[in-house]
Amino acid sequence: MADSHGAHALFLAAHPDDGEILAGGLMASMAAAGRRVVLADATRGEMGTRGTPEIREEEASEAARILGVERINLGLPDGGISSHLDTAVREVVKAIREFRPLMVFTHSGTDHHPDHNGLYTAVRRAFFLANVLKYETGQERFLPSRLFYFFSGRHLLPERIDFIADISPVWDKKVTSIKAHRSQVHGSGFDGPETYLTNDLTWHRLEVRFGYFGSLIDVRYGEPYLSESFLRLDDPSILPGVMRP
Ligand SMILES: [Zn+2]
After folding, report:
1. Distance 40 CA to ligand 1 centre (A)
2. Which residues form the domain of 128?
3. Ligand 1 center to 117 CA (angstroms)
4. Measured between alpha carbons, how far is residue 147 from residues 11, 30, 99, 125, 159 in Å?
5. Nearest 5°: CA angle at 8, between 175 and 232?
6. Total domain count for the chain?
7. Which residues of the chain, if any, have pLDDT below 50?
8. Within a domain: residue 36?
9. What's the 41 CA to ligand 1 centre distance in angstroms?
10. Which CATH number does the domain housing residue 138 bear?
11. How far is the CA of 18 from the centre of ligand 1 (A)?
């Protein structure tokens, strides 16, 4: 029953800027269409090279406002998701049961960052356990419809892609939401060690990366996704992506 679904989508990302970088376009697109989207950061990014948890929380709120999504934090230890897997699973189950999303999105299993891999494992388990009656959290059980993954291995190409979302209309929003994390990028008033995000090449790389995925579907910018299950074609008379503009 459609009514039993709360949020349209729940996005789970390990660190406070992962969601924006990897799935900001899809989140902004859904939000722009009036859908309720929740972004759950697993950690506060307290192990990050730059910024403090307090500053990062403020930046995260601003980025969520730009994208048009609700944002929560699961309070898991930065750098320690894999070593606190049971806690991570439990927090994700609680979030799924609270927001009752139609769709769940998280990191793919092929990633260079241990926290991303840890969250991938936790979310896959939680997706199942959220619907298990005797896994008790004091909430009603819930089974979302679909589980999807976004790609974060920046030195890797995805092992496969199931769909690419056209994010051209919301590209500026995505970039602005990333830049809202001022302590992490070249924000004014923040000094600190250089990281991947403070590198001059960052914006060029983002542009090229998402421009490349856009080029594969004949649009300016695209975000690639993987689906845990087959995508049903509800109307076989209209194949996706072949409509005349
Ligand atoms: Zn991350």
Report:
1. 13
2. 2-227
3. 10
4. 10, 16, 15, 11, 17
5. 100
6. 1
7. 1-3
8. yes
9. 10
10. 3.40.50.10320
11. 5
Residue 236 lies in a domain: no
State in Å: Cα 157 to ligand 1 middle: 17
Strands (E), 67-188: 70-76, 103-107, 146-150, 163-166
Contacts of 236 (CB under 8 A, 6+ apart): none
The reply to whether 76 falls in a domain is: yes
Q: Running DSSP on this structure, what letter comes out for residue 232?
A: P
Tokens of 204: 């060029």
CA of 98 to the centre of ligand 1 (A): 24
- Measured in Å, residue 48 CA sits from the centre of ligand 1 at 9
Instruction: List, for residues 96-130, the tens digit of each pLDDT value.
Output: 999 999 999 999 998 889 999 999 999 999 999 99
Cα 120 to averaged position of ligand 1 atoms, centre (Å): 12
Q: Which of 115, 143, 151 is nearest to 127 (CA)?
A: 143
Q: Is residue 123 part of a domain?
A: yes
